[in-house]
Write a structure and sequence with these properties.
With about 475 residues, the chain is α/β, with parallel strands linked by helices. The protein folds into four domains: about 130 residues, Response regulator (Rossmann fold), CATH 3.40.50.2300; about 160 residues, P-loop containing nucleotide triphosphate hydrolases (Rossmann fold), CATH 3.40.50.300; about 70 residues, Orthogonal Bundle (Helicase, Ruva Protein, domain 3); about 60 residues, Arc Repressor Mutant, subunit A, CATH 1.10.10. Helix content is about 45%, strand content about 10%. It has 21 helices and 16 strands. Strands 2-1-3-4-5 form a five-stranded parallel beta sheet, with helices on both faces. About 30% of the residues are buried.
Length: about 475
């Protein structure tokens, strides 16, 4: 099958470290940048550039043979249309200034921060592809393939298509004054998105957050709305509530599904009328805070069960940001791993370790019931248990740290059989084997994000057998089960 290359003209990686080239190529591949060539020497890079057009050069400033200053000068003079991003093992400001003077468009110390590097590369590619598309010859042809850009914020670490679309949606609703409901499983990063919404909104006030879970009605009322001096016993002074503290900014209510009925009515009034009553006040105060809520519960189900007011539910989900679990965007794992490795290294003042391609593949085989939070803890644990001198983490270092798909399948085999037995016992007529098999394959492919090898492992067959079944299903050649 033909796979279209992107960008139109290739990226050239020039680096003496073969492992760095391999990891960087894998990182670029995770965001659909697959037109890549690489070399380890400055002279070789010039030979490549002399033979073919290159869109972007990713250059290590410590390459052998050719002095990097001379190489940068030569690139700038002879290939002015080629963009350059430089890597260095130093974080010196002087080095950065020197590189910029020599025509470098961006500059990163090693190992680079993956999210910001991807944004920089994609922005440059976007500029080049747009310029190419606007040439007279290109206008007569169909526009080139262009992946979505991480154009809003580089602090969110993502590569998967779903996340690009979600960031775009989040940015578009952030400037609205209506409530935003953030939903998703525990650990997916709901608070991160609340911060992102506040940042995109450009509100002058601050973000004020409170977790509703476990708080009784009195504490919630006092904390949110505040009270007047003497409103109740021991109320010795006036207290401003979080609503007032969030004036002109954002009020973030986490675990909103746990809000009690009385507080639900007060929150509804706040949303509808922008007014509230602190304890002891007989006149309302008015709020200018934007309401953002989050939950890992099914609020529609709670509404249908009578645990959540219908009018409040429909107010809360005017805009809804649904964050997918990590298992549905497994392509984000390599970026997140490197981000957490850098975070750990900065926290404990040690060198940032690199994860090998094999180690990253092993981490991508895990289901992550605890989502991004679980991955972060896992990376910290892996690095913590290794000597500080370890700079390259291989798959052998992960032994005992994660449960692979195969391990999970073996551990849950008896439970799955019991579930299947119970399921079929409730049916008056049994389904055809073909329909059950096709449904199982479809679900496995969905859970594996359409990665055949991973899906095959989930249902206990080889990748070749799965591929054969998928091809037959596509051409309607799956044999019918005889009655």
């Amino acid at each position: 099958m033909f796979i279209k290359q992107y960008p139109t003209d290739p990226l050239l990686i020039v680096d003496r470290d073969v492992l760095f080239i391999k990891n960087l190529s894998a990182l670029l591949g995770s965001v659909k940048i697959n037109n890549i060539i690489a070399c380890q020497e400055g002279e070789e890079s010039l030979a490549i550039l002399a033979k073919r057009r290159v869109s972007l050069v990713l250059l290590d400033t410590k390459i052998r043979v050719h002095n990097h200053r001379a190489l940068l000068n030569e690139l700038h003079e002879n290939f002015p249309e080629t963009k350059i991003i430089a890597f260095t093992e130093s974080s010196s400001i002087d080095d950065a200034i020197e590189c910029m003077k020599l025509g470098v468009h961006d500059y990163f110390s090693k190992p680079p921060e993956c999210g910001k590097l991807i944004v920089s590369i994609q922005n440059l590619i976007d500029q080049l592809e747009l310029a190419k598309a606007n040439t007279p010859a290109a206008k007569e042809q169909s526009p080139p393939h262009k992946p979505p850009l991480a154009k809003h914020d580089s602090s969110i670490i993502y590569a998967h298509q779903k996340m690009f679309e979600l960031i775009d949606y989040t940015a578009s609703v952030a400037t609205s004054s209506h409530p935003v409901l953030i939903t998703g499983e525990t650990g997916v990063g709901k608070e991160v998105f609340a911060n992102l919404i506040h940042k995109f909104s450009k509100r002058k006030g601050k973000l004020v957050a409170i977790n509703i879970s476990g708080l009784d009605e009195n504490i919630i009322t006092d904390t949110l709305f505040g009270h007047k001096k003497g409103a109740y016993t021991n109320a010795d002074s006036e207290r401003k509530g979080l609503i007032e503290e969030a004036s002109g900014g954002t009020l973030f209510l986490d675990e909103i599904g746990d809000l009690n009925p009385s507080s639900q009515l007060k929150l509804l009034r706040l949303i509808q009328e922008n007014e509230y009553y602190p304890l002891g006040y007989d006149r309302p105060k008015y709020s200018t805070a934007r309401i953002v809520t989050a939950t890992n519960q099914d609020l529609k189900e709670r509404m249908q069960s009578g645990l959540l007011r219908k009018d409040l539910y429909y107010r809360l989900q005017t805009h809804e940001v649904q964050i997918p679990p990590l298992r549905e965007r497994i392509d984000d794992v390599p970026l997140l791993v490197q981000h957490f490795a850098r975070e750990y290294a900065k926290l404990y003042e040690r060198e940032v370790p690199n994860f090998s391609h094999e180690a990253l593949q092993q981490l991508m085989s895990y289901h992550y019931p605890g989502n991004v939070r679980e991955l972060r803890s896992m990376v910290f644990d892996i690095i913590q248990t290794l000597p500080a001198t370890t700079t390259h983490i291989e798959s052998l270092h992960l032994r005992g740290k994660i449960t692979t798909t195969d391990d999970r399948d073996k551990a849950s085999a008896s439970a799955s059989l019991g579930f299947a037995s119970d399921l079929f016992s409730k049916l008056t007529t049994l389904p055809h084997l073909k329909s059950v098999t096709n449904a199982l394959i479809k679900e496995a492919m969905k859970r594996a994000n359409h990665k055949q090898q991973r899906a095959a492992s989930m249902i206990g067959i080889t990748q070749q057998a799965l591929s054969k079944r998928l091809k037959k299903e596509k051409t309607h050649e799956l044999p019918l089960e005889k009655n």
